[in-house]
Amino acid sequence: MKVILQRVSRASVDIESAEMQGIDVHNVDAEDLPDAQPYHAAIGAGYVLLVGVADGDGEREVAWLAHKISRLRVFEDEQGKMNRSIHDVNGQVLSISQFTLFADVKRGNRPSFVTAGKPEHAKTVWLAFNEALRVEGLTVQEGRFGAHMQIALVNDGPVTIVFDTNEIGL
Questions:
Q1: Residue 44 forms beta bridges with which residues?
Q2: Average confidence (pLDDT) over 28-46
Q3: Mean pLDDT of 130-141
Q4: Is 109 helix (H, G, I), strand (E, B) or coil?
Q5: How confident is the model at residue 25 (pLDDT cuts 50, 70, 90)?
Q6: How many other β-carbons are positioned within 10 Å of the β-carbon of residue 142?
Q7: CA distances (Å), 122 to each of 31, 46, 58, 85, 169, in order?
Q8: Tens digits of residue pLDDT in 66-96
């Protein structure tokens, strides 16, 4: 799994309805339109997490990342040192599935995404990751898997941290 963590003072995600995206909703079953209705989610201070899943990712990666992120100390204390966790500041999480984290741009000008997880697996793992963050005591808002989203955030710091479970041997 790959996660880009950005510390934010606020963030939101918006999804237009399928009609607004030019999809003919009359020729498709509703369950096949996860973004048929407009959607909005927002958080105050906390993290925006861009989450990429590979086919080999599972429970071990989910558990490690949820534990690590929930305890990460990147919020400033009274002395201005990054010494406080998201729990200490009553922060929240906005989690966005992001297969493009697996873009391979070594050759050509069009990225390849062959190392990104298959959608069914990636969605299952992403949802399990979000639930693991909740089990860690965090409030988690989600984007919508596979939807075209508009994400707005105010990066606080800036603080941006990259997690890649392949690099730590999981």
A1: none
A2: 73
A3: 98
A4: coil
A5: very low
A6: 18
A7: 18, 24, 9, 27, 20
A8: 999 999 999 999 999 999 999 999 999 999 9
Residue pair 143/93 in contact by the 8 Å Cβ criterion: no
Residue 55 CB contacts under 8 Å (≥ 6 apart), including other chains: 117, 118, 121
Structure tokens at 56: 């080999």
- Residues with active-site annotation: 98-100
Closest CA to 56 of 110, 102, 4: 102
Between the alpha carbon of residue 133 and those of residues 77, 104, 105, 113, the distances in Å are 23, 28, 31, 26
Distance (Å, rounded) from C-alpha 92 to C-alpha 141? 8
Contact between residue 72 and residue 46 where contact means Cβ atoms under 8 Å apart:
no
- The Cα 76–Cα 74 span in angstroms is 6
Q: Which helix (H) or strand (E) holds 135?
A: helix 119-135
More confident of the two residues 71 and 166? 71
Q: What does the DSSP 8-state code read for residue 80?
A: S
